[in-house]
Amino acid sequence: MPKTRVGVFVCHCGNNIGGVVRVPEVVEFARTLPNVVYAEDNLYTCSEEGLSSIKSQIGEQNLNRVVVASCTPRTHEPLFKEACEEAGLNRYLFEFVNIREHCSWVHAHEPAKATEKAKELVKMGVAKACYLEPQEEFESEVFPAALVIGGGISGMTAALSLAGQGVDVHLVERERELGGLIRRVRTLFPTEQDTAEVLGPLIERVEKHPQITTYLGSEVESVEGFIGDFDVTVASDGAASELKVGTIIVATGAQELKPLELYGYSQLPNVVTQLDFEEKFKRDAEIPRNVVMINCVGARIPERTYCGRFCCTTAIKNAIWLKEQDPDGSVYVLHRDVMAYGVDIEEFYRRAMELGVRFLRYDIDDPPQILGEERAEAVRVQHQLMGREVVLPADLVILTTPLVAQEGSEKVSKMLKVPLGSEGFFLEAHLKLRPVEFSTDGIFVCGSARYPSNISESVSQAYATAAKAAIPIEDGFVRVEAITAYCDERSCSACGNCVEVCPFGAIELQEGRFGTTAHVNVAQCKGCGCCVAACPSGSMQQRGFDDRQLLSMISALAEEMTGGAGSP
Amino acid sequence: MAQEAHEEHGDGFEPRILVFACNWCSYAGADLAGVSRLQMPASCRVIRVMCSARVRPEFVIAALSKGLDGVLVLGCHPGECHYSEGNYFTRRRGLFLKQLLEYVGIEPERFQVRWVSASEGAKFADTVEEVTEQIKALGPNRPRAHS
Amino acid sequence: MSNRAVLVIGGGIAGIQASIDLANMGLQVYLVESTPSIGGRMAQLDKTFPTNDCSMCILAPKMIECAGHENVHLFTYSEVDEVRGEAGEFKVTVRRKPRYVDLNRCTGCGDCVEKCPRRVADEFNMGLSQRKAIYLPFPQAVPRKVTIDAETCLYLTKGRCRLCEETCEAGAIDFEQQEELVELEVAAIVMATGFDPYDPTSLKEYGYGEIENVITALELERLICASGPTGGHLERPSDGKVPRTVAFIQCVGSRDVHYKPYCSSVCCMHATKEAILANEHHPDLRSFIFYTDMRAVGKQFQEYVIRAREEYSVTYVRSRPGHIAVDQDTGNPIVWYDETVFGEAGDRVRRVTSMEVDLVILCQALVPHGVHREMVEKLGLELDESGFVAIQDRLIRPVDTSVSGIFACGFCQSPQDIPDSVIQASATAARVAELLGPRK
Question: C57 and A13: CB-CB below 8 Å?
Fold first, then answer.
């Protein structure tokens, strides 16, 4: 067996790591570790320069293990593994050590301790690397269909785009009609079209498309499996359908916050939300003379810190509508910043002002007050810019509230095993560069399910998820990461613990060369390691996370404490 | 040597804590703490596993008997395990393991199981802070003569 | 449709994402970028809001994935010369500008750069430092190959020098290199040309260009960046001192009927980020952000602003300053503004007041990139009133331009941040895939 030759690459990450951790010291230390034949530091190991260096050193130094100490494996592991492969080294002979998110960034004022910790982490990483073995990936077939959960504007757009790319789609909608939240909205921004004009044709296209199967009044009850092979149960009126899909798009939307405790919403008949206004007043009702809108109700407050993003847009839209219906009526919008970002919304805002809509800034610590007993009659507010109190007559008070998490989000989250963020909306894999994907392969999210977005934004997101959900289906296969479990049949006593604990039913007892032993179905194994921990004989192990590898990390760490660097 | 180590540390005792963090929730939560620049004591060394259920009792015993001051196993909140049941196994094992540690004379508080989700950067930082304080209060773990 | 190739114009994050998605769909992608490296504006950023991720750290892997993809063919230092035809059958002429460097031989070692005697203003560092006539635009450039700037190279302008050629061990310098015209046939085109900062010199009231310590947001970004001209040390232009107080002026040229009437979308967050970073680098530094509306509308944005206020010594002052003067002796800018918000009740006097600070940052308007107008004409696209690529139906087809088969994503079609640009980029990939139909 060839001697183990480990190469260690320690990243400065600009000054993200180097500004706290004394990187050259870590490199020096790495050189003293057993089996390390080469160590260097890089400004950005993930850059072309860094990757070139890794590739050339693999060749020059005959490295058969590579350890990179930089950021989190959750971002760059595939990149470095690719680099190893290009240099002829099996990608599973690579180990990542996190000395940024877990070290330099969280011990920024303790450089000495951070440096010592970085050294220890590198020592642990090297120890594990020495026990890594080359692996081959398994190719898993992708079932050529997609599931879209939610039939609102986002869901329908995603479904149509997928179908347009030649993919069969199952579209599941909880209500009895397609359309989602915007069905209740009368006119749309920025085109000012009647919603029916937009929604009608879209629904028709969905219903007519031969590759889209729509399930109305239905809910997804369970989802098992993994990318390429999801088993889905859809319940419709008591009947259940079993579906198989390759990828899933979450487009479950959100709901408007009804501010039950605020501004007399629950008591006064003429205090309504923007959506109430859309539903009740924009269709044939009498136009009230004096309207006061209060923005940021239940948003941007300590209990709910986020901004609803498009609620200002909605307020402006409705303010313009009111003024166009009754140019002599008064419309006041009380706000705490007008979020009219971009080109169209800013223009809209200006137009509203030109039409005579009055925008009035108020302070969060001095909110408006509704005056009136049985009905709201006026709104008293401290006009921040004028520095005095004003009383605005009001026939109608419209509260502008944000969208909040959809009813049932938690159920969907648990069912798909995808996380919700602190605001209650679905949490994507990465806020900047992976905004519509989940960490879990094959599941995507778009629209207000992810965060309140206006129609244009939701539709863009829907297209984006459709692109990503179609790719594995068009490819026809995905590669399964080689972190699956395997059984050493020679020592397996067929106790059956592993079979019982496996959450995916991926293990069976079978007759083989060594009698009855456990056998893992690699296509179903998700690499959790439950079986390994349950195995009394140590026969069951996990590739990339076996007992020897993990114990070596523990020993490496413990040794460091009691004596310092050097061979054991 | 064990005695020496104990005296040397005294008040300035800086615990060394081994942390097992699951890839989907707690490791991501730890990353988020980093991204959010939440500062915390430099006591913990994280080993990434795919699921907290991967952690065998033998790892915990090995770590404590080799002289590490504490072991923290972090997983997804019950009901939210990426592999559906893994963290239930972790929880059960944890309870059993605590009893075992007590039986062999190691303070059971040196081993803890906690739940941290991917969006709980602050919780990760708080957990590190809290567990570090608790283990500090226990003093250094006296290593076994044979490991 | 047998022609399964796509042209992507612009190698910033939007162009890169679109290219990766399209390439993953099995399409051949021709990515044309006018500068020597892909990366765009995101490469110039230090960190990105609201995660404060190191920008290059998250960009570099995407750049490499893009350039390394077997289906992506990079044309850097190139421009689109002509476009003919229609959806499904566009004929495109791409002009590869001569770099005078053989890309197959250049190893990116940088020896030539060291030897080159000619210095010019470095555009990557917003003119705050210098580069050589032969240069690598930034250390993580993809491709990692040098380029000779024909307008400043001593040999190409005056017939002297050739030191780079002497130095290059790989023999990669080629002064005979000519521009190359490449004919491509593509089924669809994606425009992703991004933005330029608006030059605030014409807003005389702010003194940009006159007062040394009045700089722009992108200039500050380069100063704060560890790989920038001062290694991340915030040194003010006049005397290199670290400022103790910094004023950010929002909406310089934006939301202004005299300049750009629209809101540039990202500047409120950008200023907040820079204020946070400045304080991280220099804990005694206090920032004052003069704003009209604090547009922190995205995910985790409000929380970011709250953190800035509570933990990073950032004070938000609601006002649009009218004038910036300067103390001639100290070089300190003096910001004159109108108090628009009253603190304690009872104080009803509306004051015009001033604040002397050490450094002023102008968050200027962001406009479509310089190549934009030319490109739009060549493609036959319509522009909206603000100069962005016109989108016919923002609601249902948010990335479709006025020409069938041509799509637009990112800033070239509307002011937006990185996540929105990335989303739109993937959206164009879906639209292209729909246009081309399934693979088989």
Answer: yes
